Amino acid sequence: VDELDDLQIGKLPGQSTKISRQLTPELRQQLEAKILKNADLFAWSSADMSGIDADFICHKLAIHKEAKPVAQRKRKVGDEKWKAIVAKTQKLLNAGFIREVRYTTWLANVVLVKKNSGKWRMCVDYTDMNKACPKDLYPLPSIDRLRLMDKVFHQQIGRNMEVYVDDMVVKTTSAADHATDLAEVFA
């Protein structure tokens, strides 16, 4: 396994990637230049991700016609959890990942799970809605993201790139071609 160095991409700590120490100085400089030139393509938080044009891909929820809407009873949450829910919801609204809906026929409760870091992970209890949806034959979770990545990178996947949900690996048969392959993926 190669020994790796951090390459700082963003302005804040942690906004970095790894780069091999075994690269020739010339190749390392080429790779660093390509990565830094395309620093705006890296997302460090949901606020860094611009919205996806709905004409390109839009999630539509398929629900069995005979299914009756379920409105879960509101669960009580403590003050600490309520503040976390409000903050996380506002981040999602600001990023354009969600929008407010009034008079919905389906209601699902938010569930907060404590992370190892002590922060909260916000989930939604879609148990009732999941029962009303037909099974999707696409074999992995995050179906819409996977389809989006397949659509965006269809020319590169299997040739010089592999994608799994939001992780992408640019692969090259020779070190000399890696900067070129990165430039193609970044384009």
Automatic annotation (TrEMBL):
SUPFAM superfamilies: DNA/RNA polymerases. InterPro entries: DNA/RNA_pol_sf, Rev_trsase/Diguanyl_cyclase, RNA-dir_DNA_polymerase. This is Transposon Ty3-I Gag-Pol polyprotein. It comes from Cajanus cajan.
